[in-house]
Structures are given as C-alpha cells and as structure tokens.
Specification:
Blueprint lengths: L2 E9 L4 H11 L3 E10 L2 E9 L5 H9 L6 E6 L12 E10 L4 H11 L3 E11 L6 E11 L5 H15 L1 E5 L1
Antiparallel strand pairs: 1-3, 1-4, 2-3, 5-7, 5-8, 6-7
Amino acid sequence: MPRLVLTVIGDDRAGLVKALAEVVTAHGGNWEHSQMAELAGKFAGIVVVAIPAERGDDFVAALRDLEGLMEVSVHPGAEAEAGAREGWQPLTIDLLGNDHPGIVNEVTGVLTRHGLSIDTIATETRDAPMAGGRLFEAHVVALVPPTADPVALRADLEELATELLVELAVE
C-alpha cells in the first residue's frame, strides 16, 4: 500500500483526531505513525497512513470534506532506501536554559556542520519557577553519520552551550 504523509491543523477541540481516523478507516487505510499536539490554540500534526492504491483518490477527496474542521495536506511518502542510513548512530541532546531568540538556529547549525540528520525535535518554553522569565527546553534525537568526528561534535556542542548559557546533556 502506498504511504501518504498528512499534515493537519485546526482549531483545538475535541474530535479532530477521531474525524481524521474515521476517514482513514473508511478507505481501508492504516494509521502507521503520528506526532500531534496542541500548539497556541491550534491542534497540529503529521500523520503517516497507508492507503490501498485503488482508494487513494477517493481518500484524498474525502479529506476535503474535513474543511472547516481542519486543514489537511497530502504528500506522497518516500520509500526508504535500503542501507541509506547504515552505520548511523542516534545521539540524544537535551538542552535547558533561559529563553532567547536563535537557540534552535544555533543548535541546528552545529548539527548541520557535522552532517547530522534530526530524527525528532521537541521544544517548549515555560515560566522559570524561581528566577522569573522564561526557560527554553529542547529534546533532540539526531542521527550521526559514520563519517562524523564525535569528539569534534561534542566539543562544538559544549562550546555552544557555554555561548548560549544553557545546560546541555549529550548521550
């Protein structure tokens, strides 16, 4: 079955995921993977579904019936190339510090310079309980290619943590 990547967003309210799941099920599809969350009063996410090829057009048309409830964009999924990420190792990065513009840009800049690919990233800001202000927190899982220099990568991340005045844990 072809895999489709759906991006969804709508005003946060009960029943959004159920409405989408009903359309997937009605077209013989399988909900394979998703990441969804409430963000700033909106409910947004990405969903990977497998839909029988002969039902794909009807499925996409049925998604249009969800307009008014949520916006859904459909993108064809790519088949994973065998061995494309062979030897790549996961690296987990947890970051916590005072919030200020540019943190994600700086961290991802280091990862990009070392050839890492982000598998997942979750970020949030929250009130600092004792000091006032806002805290920024990030949890990143990146894939490290076999050609990367782990010592240089760690040194660059530690230098960045010092520059940004954040706590950084790398595993």
